[in-house]
Design brief:
The complex is a heterodimer of chains A (785) and B (271).
Chain A (H helix, E strand, L loop, with lengths): L14 H5 L15 E7 L5 E7 L1 H4 L4 E6 H6 L32 E2 L5 E7 L2 H9 L2 E6 L25 E8 L1 H9 L3 E12 L8 E7 L4 E6 L4 H13 L6 E5 L14 H13 L3 E4 L2 H7 L3 E12 L5 E13 L6 H7 L13 E9 L13 H19 L3 H8 L8 E2 L5 E2 L4 H12 L4 H10 L3 E10 L8 E7 L5 E5 L8 H13 L6 E3 L2 E2 L14 H28 L6 E4 L2 E4 L5 E3 H8 L15 E5 L8 E11 L4 E12 L6 H20 L30 E5 L17 H18 L13 H10 L14
Parallel strand pairs in A: 1-12, 10-11, 14-15, 20-21, 28-29
Antiparallel strand pairs in A: 1-5, 2-4, 2-6, 3-5, 7-15, 8-13, 9-10, 9-12, 11-22, 13-14, 16-17, 18-27, 19-20, 19-26, 23-24, 24-25, 27-28
Helix pairs in contact in A: 10-18, 14-15, 15-16, 17-18
Chain B lengths: L4 E4 L3 H10 L4 E3 L5 H6 L7 E4 L9 E3 L3 E5 L4 H6 L1 H6 L1 H8 L4 H6 L2 H7 L6 H8 L2 E4 L2 E4 H4 E3 L2 E2 L7 E7 L3 E8 L6 E10 L2 E7 L7 E2 L1 H9 L24 H22 L4
Parallel strand pairs in B: 1-3, 2-3
Antiparallel strand pairs in B: 4-5, 5-10, 6-7, 6-10, 8-9, 11-12, 12-13, 13-14
The chains are: A alpha+beta (785), B alpha+beta (271).
InterPro entries (chain A): Ald_Oxase/Xan_DH_a/b, Ald_Oxase/Xan_DH_a/b_sf, Ald_Oxase/xanthine_DH-like, AldOxase/xan_DH_MoCoBD1, AldOxase/xan_DH_MoCoBD2, AldOxase/xan_DH_Mopterin-bd_sf
Pfam family, one (chain A): MoCoBD_1
Keywords (chain A): Molybdenum, Oxidoreductase
């Protein structure tokens, strides 16, 4: 194992820069002559725009221009498409997919939708001018509730979709499931509400647009996870120009979590305004603006029926769900609704699965990805159904799971539903997690807590999730004449530590020390293709990519090394950074070969100099990181306050490039999953006005709300890529949601409560306990003296 | 933020002269409430008068009977004060639980009571301890000072200079934090002066911090949690929102009162 290679917990290369304030976030590098853009947003969730009068505001100090939907029509400005197709509810064809509009035309469909943009020398001037814009609205009834979206009498958000039900996704084998259910020994049903949440990255969304008059093209610097995909959408769908007419780059970005993988209106608006006004245009979201206009996530209402035989083995699973899309379908909206439904198979052998997912329009900001992006929406329901079945049968939920786990010798395992799992040892993960959490000793702890008047619960959640589903990626390795390495990829580092892990990979394969490795910006001008960092893919796909690129560089270097070593390239081996001619004591260092490669005078005539290599790779199938999560909580029945006692996870991310970074990914993921279970939720009033529009009302977890997280590794390398890497980005969140919710429900179990919906906020917990008769029903706390 | 003119003077007298010269102005203490509202354009003023140079508004003095805290004394200084910790530990604990470290390093006692946020912690302490609020217009008893949500007895141009907190025999503050904002969803301050008990509640009511007379009577009769049995807080006056309906808040008032009494008993058992 090399000092800086794969498997080492080396410190993160990017941290010093970021912690010393030397990062280059988009807001740090705004061009000096940039105008500030302010978005005037709709105060109504649903209304007709009757007129917009910008006369007074245009005369306001510092204003360079004001643009509205009328101007957008003039310029034929498009909207962002939905990337995932589905079917119309009646099966008559594809679903209706209105583009995600970047500025409202005649109707506003969610509170916060852009209605006008004001560009001025300063942000305050832009805000002052925006206050002078007179917009006349005719309010319409808003469709706010997902549950009621298709109730009779509800207005239609889109005439093409009268009952607001946009699509029906049907998955699996209905007949097989009906057959299984008809023979089942027991059927266990559960309804689970997967709450709506705000992603809230530390760095809000941000964008700077420049119109390059000389080249006649748009340039964007923005906080995005995938500059290349963003460019594709902007060029093809917004501006309708060839991709070469748009440049997108992302420098330092403070957290993406899926949100910044989905293009939002402001990206297009800064570029459009820059072209219209001939000056750079900069926009930086305020936090409250982010709550209003960042795509939200999750928001499903699901029903699940689990059929078991007399040995409590799963024979069939039925799933029926309503998914919120918001007012438009974002790039990933349908993906979150239906694209990850395959996760219903979980870690269990389930012979028959059938699922129906209906997606609905509502007058709310569109739904998009958030760490997991459809995975937790499916898995939290499955894992709750497992606990509900255990509740009904009076069984230990760990034992019910153990009986149904896919065994390691069954790998690769075709679930018969959507996925074929690559590898994993689920029983061992469960055993290790149970031992670490002292699962066996829990009932003693519950009894001890009850004597103190507290309700204690433990919950388990198994996660298995698809990673590196998007397999293609481009990269380039360039070698300088001194042997130092510069490389680029389409991955974008927005906190995952990829500047470190990618360096480790290069160091592993080219034996170059880290200080001689430079990573280029993620920029469509650096390379023309990339899929970005999303879906837990960068480690697995990046590993295969850098291995391939390195091998190609070494292959060429051997041909060059053969010249001074006076042998044939086939006789050369590359060991620890040195080229050796077999059977001789002749060697050449990597730096010597690099120097020769860049000295055409020293190369034979007609020989191609240089050592760069660039290509797109596509590793084998997707990978399936997995793990067993256990959470323990204690609830104060008097107040409903929840104390998270402990958290244990045995994870399998395959081979890890940097175990410290993997742990960090698990910790962060768990915190985001528990955040949703313990208190995060987005709420609107009946008119569609956001009630949780700031951190004063949105319950973002604090560090002290998150318990100590013990991570244990039981990594089974994936056979689907040459390094055996699976990925670590999302499994923490996907596992924490069911583990956390099962722990809460288990704490409430002695009160006869079978299910409790997230979030487990104090008020909701107290009410549930109170309505169930309170803790006095099950015990008398020791009399106070 | 809307534009405003920024002023400051070196002492209270000059500050008042400055204030009198301006038609419309607001005093700025720590700025932990006013500035966020201004940044959101929910509040605006043509003139800000920063009190930072009024050195005489800072400081803590303790005698046998009272603790006096200057208006510009920051929460972190109250929390860390050996005098406050010795004389009224519940008050030091209250200050240590306000906001986060950044808020405590900027926010001031005077700013908190002059602002009278319905979920602020200090007003509960003032009411339960029977504090005297000192202003440039004279002394005002806490019971007269707090009028309604964000409304106090302060007249236009009048400035809080400090508060005198009588030292109780024992006291405790039990706060149930709002899960998002960490203000008091319900905070109950209980103070015992000999037989006399005062109970003040913040966060819960629609009209700001208030004294719970029924609890005071019951606890003055006998200072024990038994005295609270069967005592119900009327929930019709309670605040209700997505983090707690009025029934929950009323219930929390009862629970937090009981906990504050228990803590008071632990700190100084009744004779």
């Amino acid at each position: 194992m090399k000092k800086f290679g794969v498997g080492q917990s080396v410190e993160r290369a990017e941290d010093a820069r970021l912690l010393l304030g030397e990062g280059r976030y988009t807001d740090d590098i705004v061009p000096a002559n940039a105008l500030r853009l302010f978005v005037l947003r709709s105060p109504h969730a649903h209304a007709k725009i009757l007129s917009i009068d910008k006369t007074a505001s245009l005369e306001s100090k510092g204003v360079a221009g004001i643009l509205t939907g009328v101007d957008a029509d003039e310029d034929d400005l498009g909207g962002f498409p939905s990337l995932v197709p589905s079917n119309a509810p009646d099966g008559s064809g594809p679903n209706f997919a209105p583009p995600f509009s970047v500025i409202a035309r005649d109707i506003v469909r969610y509170a916060g939708e852009p209605v006008a943009i004001v560009m001025a020398d300063t942000l305050d001037q832009a805000k002052d001018a925006a206050e002078l814009i007179k917009v006349e609205y005719a309010p319409l009834t808003a469709v706010v509730s997902l549950a009621d979206a298709d109730k009779p009498g509800m207005p239609s958000i889109w005439p093409e979709c009268p009952d607001n039900n946009d699509s029906l996704g049907v998955f699996g084998d209905k007949a097989a499931v009906e057959e299984a259910f008809s023979k089942a020994a027991s059927i266990h049903s559960i309804d689970v509400r997967v709450s709506r949440v705000a992603v809230s990255p530390m760095e809000p969304r941000v964008a700077t647009g420049v119109w390059n008059e000389a080249e006649g093209r748009y340039e964007l610097t923005a906080g995005v996870q995938s500059p290349h995909m963003t460019r594709t959408q902007l060029a093809a769908c917004i501006f309708k120009v060839p991709p070469s007419k748009v440049r997108v780059r992302a420098l330092d970005v403070g957290g993406g979590f899926g949100l910044k993988g989905v293009p939002h209106p402001e990206l297009a608006l800064v570029m459009w305004a820059a072209r219209r006004l001939g000056r750079p245009v900069h926009w930086f979201s305020e936090r409250s603006e982010g709550f209003l206009s960042d795509c939200h996530s999750r928001d499903h209402i699901s029903h699940c029926d689990l059929a078991l035989d007399e040995d409590a083995r799963i024979v069939g699973l039925k799933f029926n769900s309503r998914a919120n899309l918001g007012a438009y379908i974002s790039l990933a909206g349908m993906h979150c609704a239906q694209g990850n439904i395959g996760h219903l198979s979980g870690v269990y052998t389930t012979p028959a699965i059938y699922a129906e997912v209906r997606a609905y329009f509502t007058n709310t900001v569109p739904i998009a990805s958030y760490r997991g992006a459809g995975r937790p929406e499916a898995l939290v329901v499955l894992e709750r159904a497992m606990d509900a079945a255990a509740f009904d049968l009076g069984m230990d939920p760990a034992e019910l799971r153990r009986r149904n786990l896919i065994q390691p010798e069954q790998m690769p395992y075709d679930t018969g539903f959507q996925f074929t799992y690559d590898s994993g040892d689920y029983p061992v993960s469960q055993t290790k997690a149970q031992e670490a959490a002292d699962w066996a000793g829990f009932e003693k702890r519950r009894a001890e807590a009850l004597r103190r008047g507290k309700l204690r619960g433990i919950g388990m959640g198994h996660v298995v999730e698809i990673a590196s589903g998007m397999r293609d990626e481009m990269g380039e390795i360039e070698i300088e004449a001194d042997g130092s390495v510069t490389f680029s990829t389409g991955f974008h580092n927005h906190g995952q530590g990829q500047e470190t892990t990618m360096r480790q990979l290069i160091s592993e394969f080219l034996a170059v020390p880290p200080e001689k490795i430079r990573m280029k910006d993620c920029d469509t001008d650096v390379q023309n293709f990339g899929l970005g960092s999303a879906g837990s893919r960068a480690a697995a796909v990046g590993g295969a990519l850098i291995k391939t690129l390195s091998e190609k560089v070494i292959e060429k270097a051997k041909i060059i090394a053969a010249i001074p070593l006076e042998t044939d390239a086939a006789q050369i081996e590359f060991v620890d950074g040195t080229f050796n001619a077999r059977g001789t004591n002749k060697t050449a260092t990597f730096a010597e070969v690099a120097a020769l490669a860049h000295n055409p005078m020293g190369l034979p005539d007609g020989f191609d100099g240089g050592l760069a290599h660039k290509q797109i790779v596509r590793p084998g199938g997707p990978t399936f990181p997995n793990g067993c999560h256990i959470c323990e909580v204690e609830i104060d029945p008097e107040t409903g306050e929840l104390d998270a006692i402990g958290y244990w996870v045995c994870e399998d991310v395959g081979r890890s490039i940097n175990p410290m970074i993997v742990k960090g990914q698990i910790h962060g993921g768990v915190a985001q999953g528990l955040g949703q279970i313990f208190g995060e939720f987005i709420e609107f009033d009946r008119e569609g006005q956001l009630l949780t529009g700031s951190f004063m009302d949105y319950q973002m977890p604090r560090a002290l709300d998150i318990p100590h997280i013990t991570t244990i590794s039981h990594d089974v390398p994936s056979p689907n890529n040459p390094l055996g890497i699976k990925g670590a980005g999302e499994s923490g969140t996907v596992g924490a949601m069911p583990a956390g919710l099962n722990a809460v429900c288990d704490a409430l179990k002695p009160l006869g409560i079978r299910h409790f919906d997230m979030p487990a906020s104090p008020h909701r917990l107290w009410k549930a306990i109170h309505d169930a008769g309170g803790i006095d029903a099950i015990c008398k706390p020791t009399e106070a003296a | 933020m809307y534009p405003f003119d920024y002023h400051r003077a070196g002492n209270v007298a000059d500050t008042l002269t400055l204030r009198a010269s301006l038609a419309d102005a607001r005093f700025l203490a720590g700025g932990m409430s006013l500035l966020p509202m201004m940044k959101l354009r929910f509040a605006s003023t043509p003139n800000i008068i920063d009190l930072r140079d009024c050195e005489e508004l800072r400081g803590i003095e303790a005698s046998y009977e009272v603790v006096r805290i200057g208006a510009m004394t920051r929460h972190v200084d109250v929390a860390a004060s050996a005098d406050v910790q010795a004389a009224i530990p519940a008050l030091a604990k209250l200050a240590a639980g306000i906001g986060d470290p950044m808020v405590r390093a900027r926010g001031t006692m005077g700013g908190s009571i002059a602002n009278f946020d319905p979920a602020a912690c200090y007003p509960a302490a003032c009411l339960a301890l029977g504090a005297t609020i000192q202003t440039t217009g004279g002394d005002i008893e806490a019971d007269e000072f707090f009028i309604g949500v964000f409304e106090t007895a302060l007249k236009d141009g009048e400035l809080v200079t400090g508060a005198e907190f009588p030292i109780p025999d024992a006291a405790a503050y039990a706060k149930f934090r709002h899960p998002a904002s960490r203000f008091a969803l319900v905070g109950v301050f209980v103070a015992r002066f000999g037989e006399l008990v005062r109970v003040a509640v913040t966060g819960a009511s629609r009209s700001g911090a208030f004294r719970w007379a029924a609890a005071e009577d019951a606890l003055t009769e006998s200072f024990s949690i038994r005295s609270l049995e069967g005592l119900k807080m009327d929930h019709s006056e309670m605040n209700g929102d997505i983090h707690g309906d009025n029934e929950y808040r009323a219930h929390l008032v009862e629970v937090m009162t009981r906990r504050a009494v228990l803590e008071t008993l632990e700190s100084a058992p009744a004779a």
